């Protein structure tokens, strides 16, 4: 009887937690489907309204929504792929190879994670201007191709989930280092890839400050900068703003659903250990 009560209590807590997590997204959807007057009424609406299409049409009339979505997809996708490849290579080297100064380099890498990114804004901007990359998506993509947390995450995951004996066997069979990485390590660390992909994609998708600094032309605006254009100084249409925000969130939800199983696997049991 006590086990039944404990299970019921556990599931009740999980359901309540899930509802609390989903509620902000639901509330945003409700706001996106109602007129501004309904949103500002007291009490506010709690059910979806009939203005979803109208509000989204207002979004399209004020900003280049799909162009900004396309720019964000390009930036987030290329940056994520680059981080997965480069950080996994670096993490593999830190985890499985011994070279002079390895611990010092890894310690310096960890120190960079403690430095606020705002401190590097001015020197990074200077480098971008010298390269002539202002108003170019490369200004956002290239600095995002490497990530200190990504290297740390991959190093820790590879250390605990890729056995040295398996790598030694591959080397005895004549595999090169790059083949050992690609054919042996990569299939094992797919859950780590999924976790890092979700984190990096969300970070690049939601990044606002750096794209705002280097992407001034409206044709290269990412979605977060474009959404800022929905805020009028005199008339604030909350339904339109929340409509744009709601549709801009959909790609993040799809990415999470796509990698959800591998993400949970990496946080629980990881790959199969020998």
From TrEMBL:
Gene3D superfamilies: MetI-like (1.10.3720.10). The chain crosses the membrane at residues 9-29, 65-92, 104-128, 140-159, 180-203, 240-259. Its main location: membrane. Residues 69-259 form the ABC transmembrane type-1 domain. GO terms for biological process: transmembrane transport. Keywords: Cell membrane, Membrane, Transmembrane, Transmembrane helix, Transport. One of its GO terms (cellular component) is plasma membrane. It is a multi-pass membrane protein. InterPro entries: MetI-like, MetI-like_sf. Belongs to the binding-protein-dependent transport system permease family. This is ABC transmembrane type-1 domain-containing protein. It comes from Jeotgalibacillus campisalis. The lineage of its organism: Bacteria, Bacillati, Bacillota, Bacilli, Bacillales.
């Amino acid at each position: 009887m006590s086990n039944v009560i404990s299970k019921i209590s556990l599931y009740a807590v999980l359901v309540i937690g899930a509802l609390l997590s989903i509620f902000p997204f639901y509330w945003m959807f409700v706001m996106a489907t109602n007129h501004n007057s309904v949103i500002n009424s007291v009490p506010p609406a709690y059910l979806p309204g009939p203005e979803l299409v109208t509000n989204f049409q207002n979004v399209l009339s004020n900003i280049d929504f799909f162009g900004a979505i396309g720019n964000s997809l390009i930036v987030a996708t290329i940056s994520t792929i680059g981080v997965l490849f480069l950080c996994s290579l670096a993490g593999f080297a830190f985890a499985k190879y011994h070279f002079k100064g390895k611990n010092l380099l890894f310690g310096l890498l960890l120190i960079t994670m403690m430095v606020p990114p705002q401190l590097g804004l001015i020197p990074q901007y200077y480098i971008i201007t010298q390269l002539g990359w202002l108003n170019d998506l490369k200004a956002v993509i290239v600095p995002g191709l490497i990530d200190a947390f990504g290297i740390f995450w991959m190093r820790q995951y590879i250390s605990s989930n890729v056995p040295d004996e398996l790598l030694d066997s591959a080397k005895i069979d004549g595999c090169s280092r790059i083949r050992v990485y690609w054919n042996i390590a990569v299939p094992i660390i797919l859950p780590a890839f999924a976790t890092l992909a979700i984190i990096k994609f969300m970070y690049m998708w939601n990044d606002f400050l750096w794209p705002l600094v280097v992407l001034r032309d409206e044709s290269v605006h990412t979605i977060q900068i474009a959404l800022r254009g929905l805020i009028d100084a005199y008339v604030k249409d909350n339904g339109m703003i929340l409509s744009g925000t709601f549709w801009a969130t959909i790609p993040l939800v799809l990415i999470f659903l796509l990698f959800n199983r591998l993400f949970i696997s990496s946080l629980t049991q990881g790959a199969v250990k020998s």
